[in-house]
Design goal:
single chain; mainly beta; Methylamine Dehydrogenase, Chain H; Neuraminidase; 5 domains; six-stranded antiparallel β-sheet; six-stranded mixed β-sheet; 12 helices; globular
Length: 957
Amino acid sequence: MKKTVLSISMLFVLIFTGELHSSGISNEPFLRIEMGMHTSMITGIGVDAQNQFIVTGSQDKTVRLWELSTGRLLKIFRPPIGEGPVGMIFAVAISPEGKTIVCGGRTDSGEGASRSIYLFDRESGKLVRRIGGQSYNLLGLAFSKDGNFLLAGMQSNGGIRIYRTSDYSLAAEDRDYGDAFHVGDFDGNGRLVTTSKDGFIRLYGSDFKLLMKKKGPDGFKPSGVSFSPDGSKIAVTFSDDTLLNGKFDVLSGKDLSPQYSPDVRGFAKGRFGPVCWSTDGKFLCAGKGSWMPYLIRRWSEGGKGPYKDLGEAESYLSGILSLKNGGVVFASVYPSFGVFDANDKRVLHMTPPVADYRFGSAEFLVSKNGDGIQFFYERWGKSPARFSVIERSLKTYPSLELGLRPAVTQAPGLDITDWKDTTNPKLNGKPLKFMRDDFSRSLAISPEKDTFLIGSKWFLYLFDRQGNQKWALRVVGEAFAVNISPDGRFALAALGDGTVRWYRVTDGKELLAFFPHLDRKRWILWTPSGYYDASPGAEELIGWHVNNGSDQAADFFPISRFRSTYYRPDVVAKVLETLDEPEAIKLANKESTKKVEEVPVAKILPPVVSILSPKDGSETSAKEVEVKFEIRSPSGEPVTNVRVLVDGRPIGRGLAIKEIQKDQGIQTTRTPIPEKDTEISVIAENKYSASEPATVRLKWSGKVIEEEFTVKPKLYVLAIGVSKYENKDLVLQYASKDAKDFAASFLLQKGGLYRDVVVKVLTDEKATRDEIIDGFDWISKETTSKDVAIVFLAGHGVNDSGGVYYFLPVNANLERLRRTAVPFTEMKNTVASLAGKTILFIDTCHAGNVMGARGTPTDITGIVNELASAENGAVVFASSTGKQYSFEDPNWGNGAFTKAVVEGINGKADYTGKGRITINMLDLYVSERVKELTKGKQTPATAKPQTIPDFPLVLKR
């Protein structure tokens, strides 16, 4: 299938024109998606001279630093941003020695219409300099090979600027460009070559005076350009989508005269984009700049010899750079990036963990009232799933019930044509009002056939039957699929950033956004103001970007930091009922039985921590290290506590600190560490919430103790299960047996990973309130920092009228919960006090007439997410999510959750066959097995703090 694709420069046209407003930066927080990878086009890529780092920039308004050898995300740089396109990054570079990251794009500085170039210190992440006053958007940035100069190329006819990196003063400029800058490259002697949309290739001397300016051959416009290592040749690709096999020439590095053309046969229709030479000059490499397939091709003999196609990218290439070992690094606008080694093997491939809605608009279904949707995780409509806002449930099981409808694309009197992948959709043969160079993607006609919705690369448009535009709304990603609910109230769009969004049909006002993670388990749903609902472990997927003015890096706070105020499933559900967020908030607050306080995000911002020493990646042989860290308090609230974590677990209960004001607070502490590679994290708290952990990784350089001489940890297991409640309405069948079977499976682990396994089982008559609290006290006192603690809870859990969660012991009185039940605070305090690795298994969402609310199970999602937050540091396995029940069945002899856990522990979760079962492996097995047992009616979930890496839990026995 062929699919027209615009060049990067064409894609930016909307952003560059006055058709989109420019608002500059703002102090108001912005909600952004954050899932560890770019969510929008990668527009620039850079590599340091030693090939330690990859830097990428994106239209998602972030710059990211990656470890080249592993693909591990090291840092996220956040320049100031604004509404709409303000803050989009179009160009990045890293200095040759790897110390400075530079970026630019639609980077309004708040100084009228001027743009800025931002320079970040790679190690600290701080914004160290801003070069303001740029009159045009930045499209390209490049350092000279010696690092002494920085090239900045502009949009429109802005030309180029060259800055001295000693003080970033202007060294030279050329404003005589007739159109936008494409790309530039320095040779080893400091000469510069550039290409532009005006059709010229320009060659500058080391003094940056123009030596030569030549048009592309036969009127073709030059695109990619690269000097050979010795500077004797220049490779140039040309942009013209009418070419059958692309256009690619090698020119003289002296006078731009043609030398030869690489073999482009078999390349298929389209153009080449970026190009680079290998560091020894023996190979040329170029990537497809348009049209499928998006090939990456390499020629031998400096482009004269035969070629080899290394592979394909997900979309057209935005950058290719050579590596010193003979490999190449590439980026595509999908967004994705990767590395091929010198043997042409792809050794790294990074893609976003988002649903891919391309080529599947017919599979995007909506329920009658708009509260349920069917979407798909893979392009072409593959891997369908269904989500219900009201039921708060994600179903990925193959048996999907009927009742959802696809978009209507044909209706009498509405002959809508050319709406698939074109720039000129028509109604009854007449062109529709469309933004210049925008690209139509999808169509949905309303149930009354009086309006229709078109989704495009940049906008959603609603037209009436006469073709009049009722509204146009800029969207955050390409609208690959759209639909209108059969009741006519909602316009829905499946967008390129992986979200599905609900809009009010009458005026295009956004109401809800839904993000399903590609792991098929986590999801988060939120309103424009940030009220949200989420599955366990999903709270880190969105957060607030907060600008700190024009000259400082912005902060980012995951939505989990605001859980107590903004975790409001009740508000989210009522948005679809009221079609108005303020009204939904008002109604939900009125119905809530607990005190609800609406607090602006800016007032409750958590502290921000930066570790100054030791440096990330440094080596140590000391058993105790000094940690120096700096704390800021953006909200102005005093910092009340600081926790130090080693490998994700808190050390002690916190540090005694002085009151820390808004812009100062450097602290020092000494922390014991184990004799192995270790992660140290620091978390600061104010009265509202805890900071994100600041983390450094230390490499152990001391003597490595052989495994057979290592003292193995002890495992402590507290298993609690209540079936025979004194209140007969609460009786369960297998909860007590679940606890016994769970404990028995871990007793088999003695002599494996653990030198001893100690269990305490409390079931039925023994599981009183006092005994359970004593059990918490027991495991807290017994577990040392070298041990592992596991707590298992099976029975009923309820929320009181104020929303406080309680676990029901055998003697619970529903009318006197505070005196007879176990409050969540006891669980939380126990988790926080445990010194070793901590894992909780919670199976408390059983059906039954609990609290007089028959048919309404307790939702523990918020509880799970709080226990698994970085400051508490526990791994939590939950039996079900949302409004689902946890099932038990005589055919299993257990609850579905416990049956799956015990099977996994006993060996079925050993996916690698190596005999060790890790937390992630058990999570995968339990998730799939429970869905299989319950035919998709129960979906377990696991939440793990980001500070805790995967680790072995048991051996296969």
